[in-house]
């Protein structure tokens, strides 16, 4: 049974944190699209997302966190990236960094990992309360359109543990993605953050 709760409910964050910490799968809002979210350090929970989406296990999940400090155990962040993060985080930008040794363990051996600090009030406060990063990916069946509203995510009612209703996503378009594993850095996905705004930083 899926718990459906409004983002405005005073107990919504606490309940979502509890479910994620216990290995459950949450559907949460961001300013781009809705996302599945699980504890970043729970490999079994990660597998649940792949199964729900029908996603290829080789495709990475995105790490979301409240701040840079909380992800340093999992990724190595180039100095150049700090300039970008100061300008564009929280926001609609995902940066791909090299993984640390612990990061490789958590990701099943991946050498890189996408990271984002979202600019959605509910999600930011959730990440602050949970105190550890979460793995996320857009709410959809693999290769189908991402969920941009509460109505879109109801297709997964009865499949996930909790759905947080925050209405329609502000931008309703995926984040822009930059690969910063090695120089020159590359925009690998054009999203709702205009790539031209990034040119002076990459």
Please give a structural write-up.
There is one protein chain. The protein has 202 residues and is α/β, with parallel strands linked by helices. It has a single domain, classed as DHBP synthase, CATH 3.90.870. The chain has 6 helices and 10 strands. It has helices at residues 12-21, 43-53, 79-88, 101-106, 121-130, 150-153, and strands at 3-6, 26-28, 35-39, 62-64, 93-98, 112-116, 134-138, 162-165, 176-179, 186-189. It has a 10-stranded mixed β-sheet, with helices on both faces. A hairpin with a 6-residue loop joins β9 (176-179) and β10. The longest helix is centred in the N-terminal third of the chain and has 11 residues, at 43-53. The chain is globular, with a radius of gyration of 16 Å. The mean pLDDT is 95.
| Number of DSSP E strands | 10
**Biggest sheet character:** 10 strands, mixed
What is the CATH fold-level name? DHBP synthase
According to CATH, what is the class?
A: Alpha Beta
* Range of strand content: 15-25%
Instruction: Compute the separation of the termini in Å.
Output: 46 Å
User: What is the domain total for the residues?
Assistant: 1
The helix/strand order is: EHEEHEHEHEHEHEEE
């Amino acid at each position: 049974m899926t718990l459906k709760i409004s983002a405005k409910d005073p107990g919504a964050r606490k309940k979502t944190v509890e479910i994620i910490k216990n290995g459950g799968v949450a559907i949460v809002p961001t300013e781009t699209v809705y996302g599945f979210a699980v504890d970043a350090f729970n490999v079994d929970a990660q597998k649940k997302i792949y199964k729900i989406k029908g996603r290829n296990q080789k495709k990475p999940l995105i790490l979301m966190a409240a701040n840079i400090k909380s992800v340093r155990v999992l990724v190595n962040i180039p100095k150049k990236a700090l300039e970008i993060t100061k300008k564009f985080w929280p926001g609609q930008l995902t940066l791909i960094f090299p993984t640390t040794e612990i990061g490789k363990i958590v990701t099943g051996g991946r050498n890189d990992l996408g990271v984002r600090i979202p600019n959605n009030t509910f999600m930011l406060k959730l990440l602050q309360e949970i105190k550890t990063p979460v793995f996320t990916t857009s709410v959809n069946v693999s290769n189908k359109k991402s969920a941009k509203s509460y109505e879109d995510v109801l297709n997964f009612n009865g499949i996930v543990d909790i759905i947080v209703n925050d209405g329609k996503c502000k931008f309703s378009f995926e984040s822009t993605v930059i690969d910063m594993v090695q120089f020159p850095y590359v925009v690998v996905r054009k999203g709702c953050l205009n790539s031209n705004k990034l040119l002076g930083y990459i």
